[in-house]
Design goal:
Layout (H helix, E strand, L loop, with lengths): L2 H10 L9 H9 L2 E10 L16 E7 L2 E4 L10 E9 L8 E8 L7 E9 L8 E6 L15 E9 L20 E8 L7 E2 L8 E3 L2 E7 L2 E4 L10 E9 L7 E7 L7 E8 L21
Antiparallel strand pairs: 1-4, 1-8, 2-3, 2-5, 5-6, 7-8, 9-14, 10-11, 12-13, 12-15, 15-16
Bound molecules: calcium ion (2 copies).
Length: 292
């Protein structure tokens, strides 16, 4: 590790006084996004060797926080690529238990991509002020010793607040009245059923889906966006239904969207008398999908 990497790690280290006061603990809870700028890579590994001359690689970067994932563009034949691409991760459970996982892989036209290096950044080390640093890439297994120099990636990271991911920001302005509005936030799915066979993975059978959720309540139907090729989709749908009183049953159906045929059923969940147990206020739950 060179001097700039050491300085980078020191810059990313947690500040001892950051979360120690109740004010900053409350402030940290209000962070609901990680802003990430993928700046560059340097001294990356050669994966595509040539018979004559120096080889190179076609690096692309997979970024993940929990089930939320992004992929950078691929930079062809470049061991010191500049990306300057921006991503925003929704942190539904706040930053402190989460870790950013960064994996660099070499894209190949005719075979599956090859692992080049990986690093982890715990989000509890970050704050609202951007941290720009070079992170050294390690070997495939988490916690394993560095087997060989795999180069570095330069990231700029900060925590922030995005009102789009705050599902119920408003206070109840009419606390004495009978409820007549049901707010529904459909955040994300995870470990959903694969329904589609990808041409590149024919032998494995179905490996992915294009999931969309349909929510029905009080004779109304709402649909989320369709997230292409994902078994852990982030929908971030927000809906409002005008209802009379509390205690309406809610049904959620998740389907795989197909362009050339009818959509395929993936799972459903019935939530009986959804807001009945909590007539007012927030009601956030995770639900498992079942066969109908
Ligand atoms: Ca390649
Ligand atoms: Ca499909």
């Amino acid at each position: 590790m060179d001097a700039s990497s050491s300085a980078a790690l020191a810059a990313a280290a947690p500040k001892a006084d950051d979360a120690s006061t109740s004010t900053s603990a409350t402030k940290r809870k209000a962070y609901n996004v990680l802003n990430l700028v993928l700046h560059a890579g340097r001294d990356l590994l050669v994966m595509d060797t040539k018979l004559m001359g120096k080889g190179s690689s076609d690096p692309q970067v997979k970024l993940a926080v929990g089930s939320e994932k992004f992929m950078s563009t691929c930079k062809k034949q470049n061991l010191n690529p500049a990306w300057d691409e921006t991503f925003q991760f929704a942190l539904m459970d706040g930053p402190d238990g989460e870790t950013l996982e960064v994996e660099v892989e070499d894209w190949d036209l005719l075979s599956s991509n090859d692992f080049m290096g990986r690093c982890y950044v715990p989000l509890r080390d970050l704050g609202a002020d951007p941290t720009r640093a070079w992170y050294a890439l390690g070997s495939a297994k988490p916690g394993a010793p560095v087997d060989k120099p795999r180069g570095e990636v330069e990231l700029e990271l900060s925590l922030g607040y995005n009102p789009d991911f705050d599902y119920f920001p408003e206070e109840d302005r009419h606390p004495g009245m009978e409820p007549n509005l049901l707010r529904i936030g459909v955040t994300r799915g995870r470990r959903l059923l694969p329904m589609d066979v990808q041409a590149s993975k024919l032998l494995k059978g179905a490996t992915t889906s294009d999931p969309r959720a349909t929510i029905s309540v009080a004779c109304k139907t709402f649909k989320t966006i369709c997230v292409k090729k994902s078994l852990d989709p982030s929908w971030h749908g927000r809906f409002e239904a005008h209802v009379e009183g509390a205690g309406h049953a809610l049904s959620v159906v998740v389907e795989d969207v197909d362009e050339l045929s009818a959509d395929d059923f993936m799972g459903a969940v019935e939530i009986p008398r959804a807001p009945g147990s909590i007539r007012r206020g927030k009601h956030e739950r995770q639900r498992a999908l079942r066969e109908r």
